[in-house]
């Protein structure tokens, strides 16, 4: 998996109020799968599945299929310039102060747990890793290893080039370590984990899947299934027929795996999303699914598969419960703005020039990334007073 952060254009297309994002394409609205290799792969997968793929399987292929998936091909993803072929800008690329502030939380967690290892899932361009290592080294915080878990070979190459000066401490892993003794960080990882897509027809929740016609055009097809939102069944009557939403079993399974592996240390996830009551508000009729290509947002995941990002907001209540049920303690949950301010971002901005301050302000501005993005922290065993949640903790809202 890999991390990604919307720029302002992406945020404008994302859901920040109960009504949510624009509705995905309706069943029967055919769109072409333009990449021949991806079309062939999808056709083969559909044939093996009897002509219908559940959306989470389609999303997995579109993002991660070896060689042709969005995060598995050589196409550029991250950057501030759409004319250079990038699709969105990550928070660490937007401002180096993001990583410098986060480093204070990482340093505290390393000291409290008595560990000296950092592990990052989905390291993107390597910008966050560079910022964390630079800041931790400058503060005298010992880091003996910085592990990166990333499925994208092309991104690994970019990361290795950017982080060459930190060799040999930086290492890449193909899978979860059997045990983690250290601090895990993940900036926009959970939103890239495939989701199941559901539609309420007024009486039942139907599972949304994908089909392909003889010409290679993709369309949605809704069928009966077992999945439903994690709200009580009696709440279903409040949903408008035609409502589309997502459920996140794979993201929750990821957190349960984390609980099995994390023996000492802490984990911090930064992503955009909501608590369950906000996520499944009956007025959010269109769900949160959104795609991004050349810094433009659109709600149709069936166009350009493998060539654009597909993302969903995070249900942080589900993430918190998955961690707790598997034995982790929730250190806190708050907005990105609160978290970064608690970690000293304002002081860092005071020492920056005007241009740097302007870019860093986007990290905490309510209409930019400050409120839509949230941070949740976990630790095994005993909790500690985590710096990033020292003010404005919203754990009670989960």
Shape: globular
Major sheet description: 8 strands, mixed
| Helix share, percent | 25-40%
Share in β-strands: 15-25%
Q: Which oligomeric form is depicted?
A: single chain
Number of helices, where a helix is a run of at least 4 consecutive DSSP H or I residues: 13
Helix and strand string, N-terminal first? HEHEHHHEHEHEEEEEEHEHEEEEHEHHHE
Termini Cα gap: 25 Å
- Number of extended strands: 17
CATH structural fold name: Rossmann fold
Radius of gyration: 20 Å
Sequence stretches where pLDDT stays below 50 over 5 or more residues = 1-23
Q: In the residues, how many domains can be counted?
A: 1
List the helices and strands and how they pair.
Layout: H1 8-13, E1 31-32, H2 36-48, E2 53-54, H3 55-64, H4 91-94, H5 97-113, E3 117-121, H6 127-138, E4 145-149, H7 153-162, E5 170-173, E6 180-187, E7 196-200, E8 205-212, E9 217-224, E10 244-247, H8 249-261, E11 262-274, H9 276-279, E12 290-293, E13 296-298, E14 309-311, E15 314-315, H10 316-325, E16 328-335, H11 336-342, H12 345-350, H13 354-364, E17 373-380
Parallel strand pairs: 3-4, 3-6, 4-5, 6-11, 11-15
Antiparallel strand pairs: 1-9, 2-8, 7-8, 7-10, 8-9, 11-17, 12-13, 12-14, 16-17
Can you walk through the features of this model?
With 398 residues, the protein is an alpha/beta fold. It has a single domain (8-397), classed as Rossmann fold. Helices cover 31% and strands 23% of the residues. The chain is built from 13 helices and 17 strands. The chain has helices spanning 8-13, 36-48, 55-64, 91-94, 97-113, 127-138, 153-162, 249-261, 276-279, 316-325, 336-342, 345-350, 354-364; strands at residues 31-32, 53-54, 117-121, 145-149, 170-173, 180-187, 196-200, 205-212, 217-224, 244-247, 262-274, 290-293, 296-298, 309-311, 314-315, 328-335, 373-380. The strands form three sheets. Strands 3, 4, 5, 6, 11, 15, 16 and 17 form an eight-stranded mixed beta sheet that branches. Strands 1, 2, 7, 8, 9 and 10 form a six-stranded antiparallel beta sheet that branches. Strands 13-12-14 form a three-stranded antiparallel beta sheet. α5 (97-113) crosses α6 and α8 (249-261) packs parallel to α10. The two termini are 25 Å apart. Residues 1-23 have low confidence and may be disordered.
């Amino acid at each position: 998996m890999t991390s990604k952060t919307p720029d302002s254009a992406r945020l404008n297309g994302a859901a920040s109020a109960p009504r949510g994002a624009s509705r995905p394409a309706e069943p029967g609205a055919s769109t072409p799968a333009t990449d021949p290799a991806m079309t062939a792969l999808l056709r083969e997968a559909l044939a093996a599945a009897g002509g219908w793929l559940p959306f989470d399987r389609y999303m997995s292929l579109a993002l991660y299929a070896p060689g042709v998936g969005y995060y598995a091909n050589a196409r550029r993803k991250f950057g501030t310039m759409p004319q250079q072929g990038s699709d969105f800008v990550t928070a660490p690329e937007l401002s180096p102060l993001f990583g410098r502030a986060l480093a204070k939380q990482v340093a505290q967690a390393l000291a409290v747990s008595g560990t000296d290892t950092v592990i990052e899932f989905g390291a993107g361009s390597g910008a966050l890793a560079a910022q964390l290592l630079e800041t931790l080294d400058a503060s005298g915080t010992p880091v003996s290893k910085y592990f990166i878990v990333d499925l994208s070979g092309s991104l690994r190459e970019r990361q290795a080039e950017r982080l060459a000066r930190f060799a040999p401490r930086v290492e890449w892993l193909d899978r979860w370590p059997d045990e983690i003794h250290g601090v895990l960080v993940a900036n926009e990882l959970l939103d890239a984990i495939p989701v199941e897509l559901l539609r309420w027809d007024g009486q039942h929740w139907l599972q949304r899947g994908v089909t392909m016609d003889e010409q290679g055009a993709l369309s949605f097809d809704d069928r009966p299934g077992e999945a439903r939102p994690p709200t009580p069944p009696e709440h279903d009557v409040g949903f408008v027929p035609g409502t589309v939403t997502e459920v996140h079993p794979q993201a929750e399974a990821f957190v349960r795996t984390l609980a099995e592996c994390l023996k000492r240390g802490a984990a911090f996830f930064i992503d955009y999303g909501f608590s369950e009551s906000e996520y499944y508000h009956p007025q959010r009729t269109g769900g949160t699914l959104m795609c991004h290509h050349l810094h433009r947002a659109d709600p149709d995941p069936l166009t350009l598969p493998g060539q654009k990002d597909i993302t969903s907001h995070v249900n942080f209540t589900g993430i918190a419960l998955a961690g707790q049920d598997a034995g982790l303690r929730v250190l806190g949950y708050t907005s990105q703005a609160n978290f970064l301010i608690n970690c000293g971002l304002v002081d860092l901005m005071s020492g920056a020039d005007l241009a740097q301050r302007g870019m860093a302000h986007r990290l905490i501005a309510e209409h930019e990334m400050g409120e839509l993005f949230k941070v949740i922290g976990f630790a095994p065993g005993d909790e500690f007073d985590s710096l990033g949640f020292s003010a404005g903790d919203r754990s009670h809202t989960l």
